[in-house]
Design brief:
heterodimer, A: Helix Hairpins
Chain lengths: ~100, ~650
Amino acid sequence: MTEIPYTHILFVSTALFFIGAFGFLTRRNAITMLMAVELMLNSVNINYVVFNKYFYADKLEGFFFSIFIITIAAAEAAVAIAIIINIYRKFKSIDANEIDSLKF
Amino acid sequence: MNIFPYISLVLIIPLTVFLVTGIFGKRFQQLSGILGTLGLFAAACISYLCAYQYFFETEKINAVYQTIISFKHTWLQFTVANILPLQGGVPEGRGGLSIDFTIMLDPISVMMLVVITTVSLMVHIYSLGYMHGEERYATYFSFLSLFTFSMLGLVLAGNIFQLYMFWELVGVSSFLLIGYYFDKPSAVAAAKKAFIVTRFADLGFLAGILLLSYYAESLDFQTIILRMTTENSSFITSASSPSFIGASAITWALTLIFIGGAGKSAMFPLHIWLPDAMEGPTPVSALIHAATMVVAGVFLVARLFPVFHNVPVTLEIVSYVGIFSAFFAAVIACTQTDIKRVLAYSTMSQIGYMMFALGVSGFKGNEGEGFSASMFHLFTHAMFKALLFLAAGAVIHYVHSNEMKDMGGLRKKMPVTNAVFLIACLAISGVPPLSGFFSKEEILTAAFNHNIIIYIFGLLTACLTAFYMFRLYLSIFWNKTFESHHHAEHKSEAPFSMLFPLIFLAIATIVVGFIPFTHFISPDGTSIETEFHFNLATIAVSAGLLGIAIALFLYTKQNVRAENISRSLGGIYQSAYKKFYVDEVYLFITKDIIFNLISRPAAWIDKNMVDGLMKLIAGVSEMFSEAIKPIQSGKIADYVMWFFAGVILLSVFAVYIFS
């Protein structure tokens, strides 16, 4: 079985990243925006794994980092949800366009 | 040798009393007055003991009273002293510029110790009665203690910079006490005036200190005097080459120091604060503005007298400023109607006496008679002038007015005050055998031996002094009969606490003249044998008696003679009454010239150019931030857009650079 060329995988991760970025820019719902951020994080994870596996097979830093990012993403999700709940309590909405009181 | 270990107590006690009464006084008003008086009593006992031991028990070396350093603590050392081998036959040493805290005892400082503690103690006792029932009773006493502390520190200072510090402390306590009735606008103005005028003079003093210490390379009095008086010393050579506007550095230094002394001692033209300072409570006037603080200038000149004596130009200035102030103030005193102001001008006049006595004095042996006479007059003047002020305070306490026209015929109401006032007036007029006679006679003799013009003006001043003092005395105690005001009707003379100091000082006024002062105090420390010049004494006494006779003729009974004379003198009387318009001249200089020509343009530049530049900078940044403010919209999507745009830009940039 021939190996999948790494460009394919990098293509997937780039696509994933821009899907996330597009979602983050276009969506107005805070929770959806959070999900988009998670997508971007995962595309980065894929990059790490790919580069580690294809170019530095004798090392483990890339894997470690992706595990690290997964952990942080979990924690970040918890914090973000807490913030969103608080925003909802205050504004009775989680629409990002309505939450604009932090300005001049 | 006995080094007087207890002498530092004389400083510590008043300082402690000041702190204690200042901090805790609010709750223990009565107690703090008594505490202050007891503290001062202790200090007075110490200084009497010290004076006794110094003058009678300490050995004289070569018949000279030694200068004793009883305490020395080096505080700030700038250069280390090193003793060089002989130069011109005299060991000089160089360097040694340091600010020390030194307690130095020599004849004049011991004499001043006695004067200050005695008068201060009397004023404390007097104030117990006089200030009774005042709201800030404890504060008053703590200020008095502060003043006493700083004045004692001033006279004991062995280092010119230490003296300067205490000099300023004295100024501060004088300011506080003049402004004691701070709810009276005139008192506040007087306090400010006193402070500013003396500060202005102290600027000269500071400059003089710096100049002198630069050339003498020391701040220590003994070292300065040694270096500046030794024949052929290299210090004198370097300091007496012409430096600025033709005068040598040492002349400038001493003249500037004298300006400081003239400011404190209310010499013309820096005297304007003294009459206004009478706004303070009367005991304060007695203590600070008659007996002790105002003679600090005389003390300063006396302290540096050996140096002054080597610079004849400055000594001439001292004597002419002294005689002019003496005469000028005496003329003004003849026209004033506020009794405290008369006394203030009289003080100024008498200090002028002391100054010109210093100015005409020689140094060695019997030529130093002017110096001794000056110190003697300082001593006797402190006694009788304090007495006059305290007696005037008793009168004011009784009549509730400072004006002569509200008084008259008080001799039956206030017999004790009458008697002591008369004694003091006779003393200041130079009537034998009261103390003023001896000191004044010595001063006039010294002037006669040195400078006949000064002698003649001294005599004229003596005559005027006798005249205005008796004008004052007669207007208070004789003249018309006293119209009893409703509040004064049932009052007895004054409480015992006020009468006791009067009586004590009256006795002092009578007896201190018999002290053979020249044996103890002279410029070179040896004792001087003065002969009694019968002719000169007769002339001086007759000048005084003439003044008294004129006053008796004019003021014994209520009549129009005095008014007629003043009317016929017209302009002269008016200008003397207006104090020769010195205040107006000062106002003109400060308000019209300095304010309008210097301060206003300076203020304009500050407001429009300096502030303008700052406002311009602030305005530009404000406009800029107004313009970019809308970028911060609060919308997350916008921020993310900017963020991505930035990231893309940076990536492009990075690719451009690194590829």
